[in-house]
Specification:
Rossmann fold, GMP Synthetase, Chain A, domain 3, about 35% helix, globular
Length: about 525
């Protein structure tokens, strides 16, 4: 649980909804701190957290099913306002003496509700019979618990929203956290401010100040090392630490030879020359290429890169002398995943992260960004004065270009992919799309195709272009890039990248595909 430094905070109990993270994001956007925890968190931990309000998320099960997630009933005796969303509303009904039953028709997608009572939760919306909301449920409230009144109804849900104002318990059958409910942010804000009495004190400027002060107190006169990748997470982590402890921080950048063109030089320029950090650049490019020689299996690639990264990093760290702390840019979605009540997610692919280092190096771990979502990290970066190109840098896989080269990784194939990648990013930036899409990159396929250049037959490589839209990388859809942009990308790659005679565009969504190809 978080420290007591946050006076006004909301606790979200996760019952397994695919939208739970969205609830947290909406609350953070209203400048109120919140955390997500499993529905079965011990009651003493809830008391210790001392929330101003609690939100029960939705979930895929029915409250009357065997094995349905049911929290400690004492949570209803804490005297804290509660908002139940979808399954959360059904749990409130079930636990407090109402009746939940199967809906005559499953209600999924857009629905229209009629607001019958426009106080508190629906304050400012007025009594309205045309509010658009997003429904996703197969059950509905048949009978409210004693003490509740109806706030809204829909054609399929006579009780689409309800309230017990004496105990400050509220329930909505729809999802106010999704973009498909236009007035959702207003409804959540009403719960935060009108009902819970929260203050909008969660800002990234206050977070940066508090974190720098906290890091300074925690580290004292000890030394800390931080692995820099060139991405926004590790960069923000490093700058926060540098502002906190200055020269007590040593940063290590491992050039594994699998980076985009010019990345090493950019890191040296920013952290070495601009911020004057104690930066140590390790050129291990040939070492990694030797280890990857002949390897084509993507999982094996990732494991080799992760293992060798740890060895190279550890060797350099030992050369720096006595170090107490290791810092890394763990974000809040990683923390949420690790405590999910649903258990560990299936291993789709191994992740390369400095997180493997503490057990090897016996260092104390510092994770200053573990409370933040990605968009919040970007805001902190702006507060710290990091350049916009870095703050808005798209995600880049830890194993680098090795997982964008299908098949064996060689110096020649790396150079082909780097050249194509530069063109993809250049055209995406030129079209004003770079900050609008989640990721845009090139992939080198392990096939050759016949082509004609001039009057000669060619038999050369294929580049796949992957551009996706996403909010958090959990799901993604391929971007409908204008044809003229795709045409420029294709023409420039084929005309200027030696060894490529064909370009294809990936129109697969996640799921079932992943964002990266390996």
């Amino acid at each position: 649980m978080t420290s007591s430094l946050y006076k006004h905070k909301i606790l979200i109990l996760d019952f397994g909804s695919q939208y739970t993270q969205l609830i947290a994001r909406r609350i953070r956007e209203a400048h109120v701190y919140c955390e997500i925890h499993p529905y079965n968190i011990p009651i003493n931990e809830i008391k210790k957290f001392a929330p101003k309000g609690i939100i029960f998320s939705g979930g895929p099960l029915s409250v009357y099913e065997k094995g349905a997630p049911l929290p400690d009933p004492k949570v209803l005796e804490l005297g804290i306002p509660i908002l139940g969303i979808c399954y959360g509303m059904q749990y409130l009904t079930y636990a407090l003496g109402g009746e939940v039953g199967r809906a005559q028709e499953r209600e999924y997608g857009h629905a229209v509700i009629e607001i019958l009572d426009d106080k508190d939760l629906f304050h400012g919306l007025g009594k309205d019979d045309g509010q658009i909301v997003w429904m996703s449920h197969g059950d509905r409230i048949e009978k409210m618990p004693p003490g509740f009144v109806v706030l809204a109804q829909s054609r399929n849900s006579p009780i689409a929203a309800m309230a017990d104002r004496t105990r400050k318990f509220y329930g909505v059958q729809f999802h106010p956290e999704v973009a498909h409910t236009p007035q959702g942010p207003r409804i959540l804000s009403n719960f935060l401010f009108e009902i819970c009495g929260c203050e909008p004190s969660w800002t990234m400027s206050s977070f940066a100040r508090r974190t720098i002060r906290s890091l300074r107190e925690q580290i004292g006169k000890d030394r800390v090392i931080c692995g820099i990748s060139g991405g926004v997470d590790s960069s923000v982590t490093a700058v926060l630490l540098h502002k906190a402890v200055g020269k007590q921080l040593s940063c290590i950048f491992v050039d594994n030879g699998l980076l985009r063109r010019g990345e090493t030089e950019e890191v040296m320029e920013l952290f070495g020359k601009r911020y004057h950090m104690d930066l140590h650049v390790v050129d291990a490019s040939q070492h990694f290429l030797r280890r990857l020689k002949g390897v084509t299996d993507p999982e094996q690639k990732r494991k080799i890169i992760g293992r060798e990264f740890i060895r190279v990093f550890e060797k350099k760290a030992k050369e720096l002398g006595k170090v107490t702390y290791l810092a890394q840019g763990t974000l809040y979605p990683d923390v949420i995943e690790s405590v999910s009540f649903k258990g560990p997610s299936a291993t789709i692919k191994s992740h390369h992260n400095v997180g493997g280092l503490p057990s090897v190096m016996k260092l104390k771990l510092i994770e200053p960004l573990r409370e933040l979502f990605k968009d919040e990290v970007r805001q902190v970066g702006r507060e710290l004065g990091l350049p916009n190109d870095l703050v808005m840098r798209q995600p880049f896989p830890g194993p680098g270009l090795a997982v964008r080269i299908l098949g064996e990784v060689t110096h020649e194939r790396l150079e082909i992919l780097r050249a194509a990648d530069v063109i993809v990013l250049d055209e995406i930036r030129g079209a004003g799309l770079y900050e609008k899409v989640w990721q845009a990159f090139a992939v080198l396929l392990p096939v050759r195709t016949v082509g004609v250049m001039g009057d000669e037959r060619t038999y050369e490589h294929v580049i796949a272009v992957r551009i996706v839209d996403s909010l958090d990388a959990m799901t993604a859809d391929w971007t409908r890039v204008p044809y003229d942009v795709l045409a420029r990308i294709s023409n420039r790659i084929i005309n200027s990248v030696q060894g490529v005679n064909r370009v294809v565009y990936d129109i697969s969504s996640k799921p079932p595909s992943t964002i990266e190809w390996e």
